[in-house]
Amino acid sequence: MKNAIKKATRHVNQNDGLIFEKSSPGKAAWKLPPLDVPEVDTKALLGSSERKDLGHMPEVSEIEIIRHFTRLSTWNYAIDLGMYPLGSCTMKYNPRVNEAVARVEGIANAHPYQPEKISQGALQIIKTLSEILIEITGLDAITLQPAAGAHGELTGLLLIRAYHKSLGKPRKKILIPDSAHGTNPATAAMVGYAVENLKSDSRGMVDVASLAAQMNDEVAALMLTNPNTLGVFEQEIHKIADILHAKGGLLYMDGANMNALVGKVRPGDFGVDLMHLNLHKTFSTPHGGGGPGSGPVAVRKILEPFLPKPVVVTNSDGTLVFDSDRPQSVGRVRAFYGNFGMFVRALAYIQANGPDGLRQTTEDAVLNANYIRKGLEGTYDLPYSTPTMHEVVFSDRLQAKKGVHTMDIAKRLIDYGFHPYTTAFPLIVPGAMMIEPTESESIEEMDLFVDAMKSIAAEVEEDAKTVLDAPHCTRVSRLDETTAARKPILRWKPGA
Amino acid sequence: MRYLPKSPADREAMLKAIGLRSVDELFAPIPAEYRLNRDLKIPRQMAESEIVDWFRQRSRENGDGYTSFLGAGAYSHYRPVIIDSLISRGEFLTAYTPYQAEISQGTLQAIFEFQTMICELTGMEVANASMYDGSTAAAEAVMMAVRLTGRRSVVVARSLHPEYREVLATYATHQGMPLSLVEFGDDGRVDLKKLENLITPETACVLVQSPNFFGTIEDVDAVAAIAHKHGAMLVVSIAEAVSLGIVEPPRQADIIAMEAQSFGVPLGFGGPYCGVIATREKNVRQMPGRLAGQTVDKQGRRGFVLTLATREQHIRREKATSNICTNQALVALMVNIFMTVYGKVGLRELAKQNLAKTAYAASVFAKHGEILFAGAPRFNEFVVRTGEDPKAINGRLLGHKIVGGLPLAKFYPELGNAALWCCTELTMRSAIDTAAGLIAESERSVRSAKEEVEEMAR
Fold first, then answer.
1. Does the distance separating the beta carbons of B296 and A483 come in below 8 Å?
2. Chain B contact for A328 (CB, 8 A cutoff)
């Protein structure tokens, strides 16, 4: 069976302990310049507020730090190493020019409170990106302040609440399909809304009849991911929007899956009232092991007065300034202006693509997902045969008969040199295997993936134990998560 | 398009394999009337060299080459070069959240070390893997105190960063969390008598910042004693992390909400930064955000996993402790490397230089302007009141390529012509002297104008 693994080979990697285990007094990786002002008596200045001891902070040299983190890095899988088909996460190539321009001196070192007169470059970046994202979404106005997708959702629901309140009735409920990301209901709760589940129909789409039955004047909005988490475009989107709008509700779109739409269709054109984008998904800013992200929220004109403050406006002389005089604003959702460094990267990505590149990117993302669907259909169960956009969801139904589940297959995929797909989500598919290749994969890489998945399916039939015990080729095997949660060890302690 | 790894022939072959004739068929599920049949109206595709030029141009319009006395929640400290060397490794930069522990041990161990160092520096027992920034961390810490105490109202120091207060107000609006503000006294610190009067049996927590927005170190012991006497929690916000090198951490706090930007994160016009929440072990199940924990694999080898996930949105949905998903992981890695570079001794020496520069600046500024809140200890910021509007003085300083302190009239009108100045280890004595010289000139001209008026009156 070992010969079946084509993409990966085992190789030596370095062991390393915790940084604290290398520390010893007198080692240092820092050097300060001589003081050009008089030394101070810290005791006299700080009195009882003076700190005497920094506990177990490490003392190590520079080479040890370089080796430590370099070794750690080699224990990670990454997009730079290969396909990373995590559904709903859009793990696409992170262009390096993005990183280069984010580090240009006047951009990297700009203080958020420096005078607007010497911030025109930063303001121009905000304005340019805003205009582009408005064009891409087909909406009318935007805020870049939210720091991530979930933060964008929070901002969006605050806008919805402010809007309904301005009409005299704040409304109580948010409708959320059962296929939605967990952030949707968690966000609704933070904004004081009751969450009402909306079930999917047999095609994996919103059940329009249920929606019509559940819609009333207590429903503030529907939070809809489109394409949804099955990778399915909501074909009756116009009906959905009409049902909501007829009773004064709003249509919020979770833009997590915008990589299926950019340049091909605009949410504002199919009835969406507001949506967030994930610059770290659709617009290539790096995921960095979990963040930072950026979650701009684009809105229709009716919601513009409520946008977080400040907003960038153009003076009569053409200079750009921040406007905080926004009496109907929901307020600030973050100090300063958001994850500005991510705006820089997203804009550089958009410039590298242009309109033709963005369209081709979307087409390739959808083409890749369909290619994988075709390749694995028959080997794995496809619970919904509805057409696939940018991601495809299989289930472990066939393999579960042998006692092998989605997580086991995912772990075995690691041995084959791939990052696993998203497991056990969306919740409406038991044993879900959610695959999003993105546009960044070549035929060769995808053929290797399909081949690996087929090989694992064969293993399940012939030698299920190999799959159940996977991964076999990693530094550590499956970790004891139960003990980790029952008796949490969340920090290093000396002598432990 | 140079990021796409396909030739036209590849695309043809793939379509054929799928059994389609054209790409358009892939988009058939989208109703035809909504499909965009034109190019997006955005700038044309640019070469890499053009992109670099465009951003260099923006950089030149953006205060490149100025010396700055701005702090106020965003601090200019030296960033050791190895931070960028290490975080630029693709295995850190282009990895996702470490849900698949076996191929994410690098990120997980780094988070575990980060959590440990934050605990060491703050005096807390557990720290999370990051929040968006200091402002949202403070808001989430307050919500956590509300859950832990079962009480709902919150007393907030007016000496907390004004934008943090705004963010908290936004978060609190729809959660039935009444906020009241406690004033600062003549020493710039929380007025303890007023605090005592504002706390009620419904107070979930008191939120203060130390060093506070004016750079003044709060009497955290006294604030904690009052809060705890009434069964309320104390949440302390720390915006200037470098202070932890020489200022005693607020060990009496129940929750610390931190902004770690000072630890090696570029100013970047306000973000991305790195919020953190740290607390006592007994509070951990109400803590928002990701946590890495130590465990063992099947062979008993040490390893790390994301743990206590039942607090989080992907498991608990509307019952989660927070909606946070994406955090600031790569920025936390910068912070981690910075803390490792300076370590036990360097952080203290670094903080000491900040203290010395600031003490010097305050002493020379005091000759010409009025230093407010001089009665309490401070770290690397101080408030100067001048006869003239600080905006006018700053206007002249710009001519010397110096950005002066932050005028406070917008946030604290009662302080008059006051500005918040910050010095770090990067502030040169020559810049301090130049700024002091311009303040002196301003004071002289204000004085002579005043004398002229008095003379005329005589």
1. yes
2. no
- Asked if residue A337 lies in contact with residue A112, where contact means CB atoms within 8 angstroms, the answer is yes
| Distance in angstroms (rounded) separating the CA atoms of residues A171 and A377 | 45
Q: Is the peptide bond before A387 cis (omega within 30 degrees of 0)?
A: no
Structural contact between residues B134 and B259, judged by C-beta atoms closer than 8 angstroms: yes
Alpha helices in A325-405 (DSSP H): 340-376, 397-400
- Contact between B94 and A330 using a beta-carbon 8 Å cutoff: no
For residues B415-429, average pLDDT? 98
Q: How large a percentage of chain A has pLDDT more than 70?
A: 99
Alpha-carbon gap, residue B13 to A446, rounded angstroms: 13
Terminus-to-terminus CA distance in chain B, angstroms?
79
DSSP 8-state class, residue A473: S
Whether A139 and A299 have beta carbons less than 8 Å apart is answered as yes
Distance, CA of A93 to CA of A259 (rounded, Å): 13
Determine phi and psi for A147, rounding to 5 degrees: -85, -10
What sign does the dihedral A132-B330-B316-A385 (CA atoms) show?
positive
On the question of pLDDT at B398 being above 90, the answer is yes
What is B289-356 written as a DSSP string? S--EEEEEBTT--EEEEE--GGGSHHHHGGGSS----S--HHHHHHHHHHHHHHHHHHHHHHHHHHHH
* Interface touch A387/B28, C-beta < 8 Å: yes
Residue in A39, A70, A351 nearest the CB of B89:
A70
Determine contact: A54 vs chain B, CB below 8 A: yes
Rounded Cα distance between B217 and B357, Å, is 17
> What is the C-alpha to C-alpha distance for residues B280 and A424, in angstroms, rounded to an integer?
33
Dihedral (Cα; A426, A428, A430, A432), 10-degree rounding: -30
Tell me the longest C-alpha to C-alpha distance in chain A: 77
- Chain B closest-CA separation from residue A463 CA (Å): 20
- Residues A431 and A426: their CA atoms lie apart, in Å, by 9
B10 in contact with A, Cβ within 8 Å: yes
Q: What is the pLDDT of residues A27-84, one digit of tens each?
A: 999 999 999 999 999 999 999 999 999 999 999 999 999 999 999 999 999 999 999 9
The pTM score is 0.97
- In angstroms, rounded to a whole number, what is the distance separating the alpha carbons of residues B195 and B176? 21
Spans of chain A below 70 pLDDT:
1-3, 496
Q: Which class for A27: exposed (0-12), middle (13-18), buried (19 or more C-beta within 10 A)?
A: middle
- The two tokens of residue B187 are 């020493």
Half-sphere exposure of A257 (CA within 13 A, CB side): 30
| Cis peptide upstream of residue A227 (ω within 30 degrees of 0) | yes
A121:B89 CB<8 A = no
Q: Two tokens at A427? A: 């919740």
Q: Which residues in B lie closer than 8 A to residue A37 (C-beta atoms)?
A: 356-357, 359-360, 429, 432
Determine the pLDDT at residue B56: 97
Helices (H), A195-272: 208-214, 237-246
This complex has an ipTM of: 0.97
B 177-216 residues inside an 8 A Cβ radius of A: none
Could you tell me which of B207, B260, B214, B264 has the C-alpha nearest to residue B237? B207
Q: 């990297």: which residue's tokens?
A: A108
Cβ-Cβ pairs closer than 8 A, A with B, add up to 687
